[in-house]
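Why this split exists: single-chain examples teach little about how molecules sit against one another. For that reason, every record in the complexes split bundles all components of an assembly together and asks for one structure covering all of them. Below is a record exactly as it appears in the raw files.
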Amino acid sequence: MVFIFGLLIGSFLNVCIRRLPAEQPEERSIVHPRSHCPHCKAPIDWYDNIPLLSYLLLAGKCRSCKMPISALYPVVELITALLFLASAAVFGLTFIALKWTIFACLMIVLVFTDIIARILPDPITFGGLAAGLVLAFFSVPEDGAAAWLSRRLFDFPPPAPVLSLADTLFGAALGGGLLWLVGEVYFKMRGREGMGFGDVKMMTLVGAFLGPQRTFLTILVGSLLGSILGLLFILVRRKGADYELPFGSFLGIAALLVVFFGTPVLEWYLRISGIR
Ligand SMILES: [Zn+2]
């Protein structure tokens, strides 16, 4: 059931991915018009709009004009469903699993709008940041940075929601701040923009969900992924070094890796560095 629910949400994320980056504001509506073929404009009936299944039954072609349907649609649906399943398997049917499925949805939209249109839409980055702040009130303070600081500042520990919100604000400030700083340094050195402000907004959102430690790990992993895949891409496609990579996509993939695999990495690092 979690998998099927994930497929349905993935189908909605496809609409967000296609429409939010549109140039005309009236084309950005995610509720209107109904789904239609981008080639022949024929409306898509419900039985041709079933996640994953319809793509397979139609063999990836539009029913009326037989033009190919982008394989990204079923891919997004499958990735969403698998991430929903992973959240439920790792965190159980809990509030924390709900938090990470919401986060996964935000990351999926940003990863794909950045790949397709090199855009990280404001409704997702700002809306996601707002969601992260609200969810912080109901979350257990996981990061430990606020707890560590409060032990040095106060005789009595503040209540959990305050610590959790503080972690969220530290994470958002670190994520947005670090990316802004890197962008500024690059701009001063090269005299042109190397990183869009969308990446800064995105990492503010990521920081709000992950807290400072996991945010730092996300930037590290995202930069590594970007460097390795970027170099491979330049070698294989023979595009110049100035080819604009979807850095937001790498950050989004890194953030999801950190959600599911970050805890042992952080514990290992804190142990070998003698902090814990
Ligand atoms: Zn068509």
